[in-house]
Amino acid sequence: MTNNSVKIVSLIPSATEILAALGLTKEIVGRSHECDYPPEIQNRPVCTAARFNTDVSSSEIHDKVNNLLQSALSIYQIKTDILEQLQPTHILTQDQCDVCAVSFEEVEKAVAQFVTTSPKIISLQPTVLQDVWADIERVANIFEVDSVTILENLQARVKICQQKIQGLSLTELPTVACIEWTDPLMTGANWIPELVNLAGGQTLFSVMGKPSAQLDWNTLIASDPDIIIFMPCGFDLSRTRKDADLLTQRAEWQKLHAAKTGRVYITDGNSYFNRPGPRLVDSLEILAEILHPEIFDYGYKGKAWEPL
Description:
Layout: E1 8-10, H1 13-21, E2 28-31, E3 48-50, H2 58-70, E4 76-78, H3 80-86, E5 90-94, H4 104-114, E6 120-124, H5 129-142, H6 148-165, E7 175-182, E8 185-187, H7 192-198, E9 202-203, H8 217-223, E10 227-230, H9 237-248, H10 257-260, E11 264-267, H11 280-291, E12 305-307
Parallel strand pairs: 1-2, 1-5, 5-6, 7-9, 7-10, 10-11
Antiparallel strand pairs: 3-4, 7-8, 11-12
């Protein structure tokens, strides 16, 4: 089906990465303001915008997001004039998290009003790795391209991680706290606990396949994890470092086992952990490197993660 008649607008970075992995980059005619990978899609027209400035503190972002959601507004807006010009045949979005991308309802509304081509809306809502594989397969089926090779490669990389940690005893599996937001404190959830376990760690606080929850500061201190990993949603390494530094200045921080042993890390959550697409396998390999440097060295250090 991949020919000139297919015009895809992707409104979420993970969907863009899935399309690219399936060889459908040329068919992408429009993207969200956050779609930045692979680099060759950055010249596509941008079809969304945030309703507020994100260059503010994490607590301010949190408050603004909550205020918008309480007033029944999406935190993003669709540039309907650009959508109208593009007249896509397919629009990829998500129906899982109102903070991650334009809501499914907003896309439906915009399409009904402005797009005469009646595009097919494909909504992704993964919560665990298996869902990501299913999304890749579903998108491939819709566009009649092959997903077998890409899925086999991704699953083989997961299996390699699993095989390498098989011999570890329970005492060699560190307890891990993944921080997805710093103010208020929130833990990484959905697929994150699964990735931590696959990489040879024991997840604290979060339940696989469930949304992120707020974490009480005293609970973090009391649980005293072996390893703390910062992966704030939407932040790159340098922004993550700034946010992590605010937490590390608190008096109790220095008493934490992870702080004393130098096992606190920052990651590029925006590129990896927060995008449920093919690069979740990269995220697994990043975690494996952090948790077990004696076993894994994929070369992500300095680019995707750093010690704090």
